Amino acid sequence: MQITSFKQYEEDYKKSVENPEQFWGEVAQNFQWRKPWFKVLSWNFSEPNIKWFEGAKLNITENCLDRHLAANGDKPAIIWEPNNPEEESVTLTYKMLHERVCRFANILKRNGAKKGDRICIYMPMVPELAIAVLACARIGAVHSVVFGGFSAKSIADRINDAQCKLVITADGAYRGNKQIPLKEVIDDALIGCPTVEKCIVLTHIRTPVSMLKGRDVWWEDEVKHVNDICEAEEMDAEDMLFILYTSGSTGKPKGVVHTCGGYMVYAGYTFSNVFNYQPGEVYFCTADIGWITGHSYIVYGPLSQGATSVLFEGIPTYPTPSRFWDIVEKHKVNTLYTAPTAIRSLMSFGDEPLNGKNLSSIRVLGSVGEPINEEAWHWFDEKIGHGKAPIVDTWWQTETGGIMISPIAAVTPTKPSFATLPLPGIQPILVDENGKEIEGNGVMGNLCIKFPWPGMLRTTYGDHERCKQTYFSTYEDLYFTGDGCLRDEDGYYRITGRVDDVLNVSGHRIGTAEVENAINMHAGVVESAVVGYPHDVKGQGIYAFVIYPEMHGEAELSKKDILQTVTRVIGAIAKPDKILFVSGLPKTRSGKIMRRILRKIAEGETSNLGDTSTLLDPGVVEEIIEASKNL
Ligand code: WT7
């Protein structure tokens, strides 16, 4: 199933479009099924109703673990690199990982978990996080991993939306020189979560935690009561594998649902191809398992292919900005998959952190999460890849399950800042505002996908109508990505960024409405409007215009108060970079905020504001412009 030449890519692509069922049926033969499918695909985008590998039975953990045991049981599956480089790293072979997953699966059962139950995971980047994820999959429970940076309220909202029965957490996490009290955050969250019966707590930083009798149990104690034999639950290809919450332009985050069979095939196929993974190589994805990149390209994709996946607990700049390069050298990393924001941040330290570092093991580089600017692309290429490692700029989304538009390493000729071409099976189209297809090359439009692929979302948890409205109703019979896109003269795709009210801050997806709601919860705030603006390192920064007439004391302190509220309501990742106090917001006569104008002001553009004739009170704009100059 591995593509080794551009000619083969073209042939496979053609075949995947002309005969998708045959194409994916053949790809799926590379995985292990308990029972084969009777139909590869049935679908419509109007409901939507999408089924891949109908009738097939499997367990994804048999593909990620059991099937490697005979030939590769002693091969490293996970190499864990701790936050503190002075501490020992940990290598788990496939045999060891299998054993630990089975043990923890038995712990889950012992604590009442069954097939179909939802389980929330809120953990640091330690091997036990991967073990917890796989153990859920082993018993057919649905995991909902919540990134360690979210607040108690965000966690509670997610737990309640999915009606989780169990929570898996740790006492705390290390992040650089900080310690984060995870269990404390969970304790706050669980006050408002009536469905949660049990909470399993891993000891990691050994900070004091409260343990509620009857609800909270220690991971280490539980291990003593179980053995390492756990037969995998037989799952239908379309049974739910996991829920992952992500932000949109309106409302609360949605629980994107992925199912067992199609997701497995897509994560495995794209991992093997995009990174051109070779047996024995060491692969390092710097994402957190709390995001889709970690699900698909730290856990499921690599493990389904018998790869060695590095799991790093820390951050790129701790203890020094050489940390990534030290890890590459120490573990002889062959593939490094990271985010443009990390590249830009490391670039800003100059060449010094690279001095004396041996990066010669690197063969493939990857970028994900946001558009990569040319400067960062070239730096990555020259300084890290020494001009010899192909860069795969991978475009995809939580909803797509896996990489959609990307070069195939060592196969597709790359071009800085272009995600290049669709992978086999992916049929992108560009449309105008009215949904009319924009054909030909050298054009721009809204990026849609017109045919299903195995890794696509099936629904949004508990609210199928929302899934339909968000992704399948903007344009008839198309999946709408929310991204704008350029297709150049060569037919290469460049993603230009979101066209909806979704921000991408350091590769994290944040809805402007969510941030506004959080700011508006602050006592005394009357109204707010949030927009993104270009930020050198983060890609986008968050700019908040806030009406706060009864400001409490000094403006600077009041801003800090608001940041506290946002941190409480969503989490530190959603804190505005800039807050501007204003007396009014530019609105149309029908009361709609004209964000277009605010975006321009946030970008520092104060003369060409476009058409302002529909404004209710043009004076407001003048005032905001003046105030913005002093920020
Ligand atoms: C949004 C999806 C894909 C996993 C991590 C983010 C942006 C993602 C690229 C890229 C330009 C990109 C898009 C997309 N995005 N990759 N290579 N080039 N933009 O997943 O949180 O679901 O965010 O990230 O805007 O819609 P996500």
TrEMBL record:
Residues 9-64 form the Acetyl-coenzyme A synthetase N-terminal domain. It is an enzyme of class 6 (ligase). The keyword ATP-binding applies. Residues 514-592 form the AMP-binding enzyme C-terminal domain. Keywords: Acetylation, ATP-binding, Ligase, Nucleotide-binding. Its EC number is 6.2.1.1. GO terms for molecular function: acetate-CoA ligase activity; AMP binding; ATP binding. Residues 66-452 form the AMP-dependent synthetase/ligase domain. One of its GO terms (biological process) is acetyl-CoA biosynthetic process from acetate. Belongs to the ATP-dependent AMP-binding enzyme family. This is Acetate--CoA ligase. It comes from Pedobacter yonginense. The gene is acs.
